[in-house]
Each structure stands twice: as C-alpha cells, then as structure tokens.
Write a structure and sequence with these properties.
The protein is an alpha/beta fold. It has 10 helices and 10 strands. The chain has 3 domains: 81 residues, no CATH class; 60 residues; 77 residues, 3-Layer(aba) Sandwich (Glutaredoxin). A 4-stranded mixed β-sheet has the order 8-7-9-10, with helices on one face. Strands 1-4 form a two-stranded parallel ribbon. It has a two-stranded antiparallel sheet with strand order 2-3. The structure holds FE2/S2 (inorganic) cluster.
Length: 271
C-alpha cells in the first residue's frame, strides 16, 4: 500500500493487485505491532483509506497477476479478476449480501462439557440489576458489560456467561466483543489502574524507563495487581497526549512530562 501511495504521489498511475478480497493483509488481523505495541489498525487504516481514495491508485482486489510480458516502459500484464457476485462499484460494505446469501456455512463443534459457574446470590443480584437497567436498549451488550465492569472492575466469568444467557447472545460473541476493548479485564483488578504509555512518542521519550520505575515502586509486572488489590498495572499504546510524553494515568488522572523521580511521589499520593 505504501509503495502504491509513493508511486501515485509521484504522478504514476498504479494498479494495486491484491489476491484476497480486501487490501490490508495480515496486519489487518493484528491488534498490536512489535516492538512498540502500536495499534495495528491505527497505522493501517489511514493508508487503506488513502489507497481507496487516491485518484492514481486503482485497486484490483480478489485478483491475481497471470502473466507479465514486455520490457520496462511497455509492460503488458494479464490480471485475472475472480467473480465476486456483487457489483463492486455499488458495494458500500454494509454486509447485507452476506445475510441474504443462499449459501450458508455453519461451523459445528461438539460442545465441551463445562462446569457450571458459581455465583454468590448478592453478586447475581448485581448482574441482574445491570441487565434490567439496559433491558429496553437495542444493542445492550456493550452497556451491560460496561456496567458490570464498573461494578467489579473486571468481568467475572460467571457474569459473562449470565450476560450471554440473558441477552441470548452466544458466549463466543460476548467474549469476542469484550476482548476487543482493553477497558475490560478477565482477571480481578485493583481499585486503581495505572496505565503507562509505550506509544511511539512516549517510548522515544523514555516510557520504558517510566514503566521500570512503576514496576519497582509497586513491585508488580505489567498485567499484575498489588497484593492489597490497590493498583493494577497496564501499558497502553497512546493516551492521546503525546505532546506531554512520557505519560501515564492513574484511573482518570493524567501525568505528563514524567521522570523516574516523580513516580514514587505520584503513587504514594494515592495511598
Ligand atoms: S504516545 Fe504516549 S500519549 Fe501518545
């Protein structure tokens, strides 16, 4: 994509041939990229949009190059476009054709024997209360998960399976949505979330050293919670205040222009 854009910006007409039905490749399936943990989609999406809109780039998706003949300046390329059975010029990506398609493939897996998840009665009442609060809403799944997360600071497995049952949404779908957002955790978390930014701007300004200082101060590693359930530690890829890097947050409080020396004072102010 970047090569196409560079050529297109230099004034060449570019035919971007892609074997699969959409551009983006494996990166579009990734959450983060190594080594900076930057959000893959944040890097990829602007290029995908630019390729889609650039006047000099013609995308030939679901197509393959069959042969190339000729010499520099006068190549002849034969491209096979595979049948999509939809008019790509009219496609808006709404997905309705999938719903109406006569060919349906269902994956069936033998259900595994699962131990019933135990929930204390008062905890169950809490989950029921959150469910009732959002009962009349369309697309209640996310607000319900947020409500439970706000109550417990994590998503207990029994609550997740109760939500799946009550909203009649398959458990796999609930988990797929819940695991997409890093505000949800499947491990008990402390009362205070410490998030140290390791996005590019913060990393360059010493984010990794800030993380070391926080780990030392709290005596936990990333993803862990202190024994008193006070602090949990996470890293994030950008907090949206790169101008103040390196940055960390403690719940909703933002701390910028950090140095290792400031960490102890900041954290002890919460004790
Ligand atoms: S990279 Fe840290 S706030 Fe943006």
């Amino acid at each position: 994509m970047q090569a196409s854009l560079d050529l297109a910006n230099a004034g060449f007409k570019v035919y971007l041939v892609e074997k699969s039905p959409a551009i983006g490749g494996v990166m579009s399936q990734l959450d983060k990229t190594f080594p900076t943990n930057d959000c893959a989609m944040c890097t990829l999406a602007p290029r995908m949009v630019e390729c889609g809109n650039h006047i000099n780039v013609e995308k030939l998706t679901y197509s393959e190059v069959e042969s190339i003949e000729g010499k520099p300046g006068a190549f002849k390329v034969r491209v096979r476009k595979k049948a999509r059975s939809v008019d790509p010029d009219k496609c808006t990506g709404c997905g309705e054709c999938m719903e109406s398609c006569l060919v349906q493939n269902y994956a069936y897996l033998e259900p595994l024997p699962v131990e019933p998840l135990e929930f204390a009665a008062d905890e169950l009442d809490e989950v029921n209360r959150v469910l009732e609060e959002h009962a009349s809403e369309k697309g209640a799944l996310l607000p319900v998960l947020e409500g439970i997360n706000a109550r417990y600071n994590w998503l207990p497995p029994a609550a997740v399976s109760k939500v799946s049952e009550a909203l009649d949404v398959p458990l796999a779908r609930v988990l797929r949505i819940a695991t997409f957002y890093n505000m949800f955790s499947f491990e008990p978390r402390g009362e205070l979330m410490v998030r140290v930014c390791l996005g590019t701007a913060c990393y360059v300004k010493g984010g990794a050293r800030i993380l070391e200082a926080v780990q030392r101060e709290l005596n936990v590693k990333v993803g862990e919670t202190t024994n008193d359930m006070k602090f949990s530690l996470e890293t994030v890829s950008c907090l949206g205040c790169c101008g103040q890097s390196p940055v960390m947050t403690v719940n909703d409080d933002i701390y910028g222009y950090l140095t290792q020396g400031k960490i102890s004072e900041i954290l002890t102010s919460y004790i």
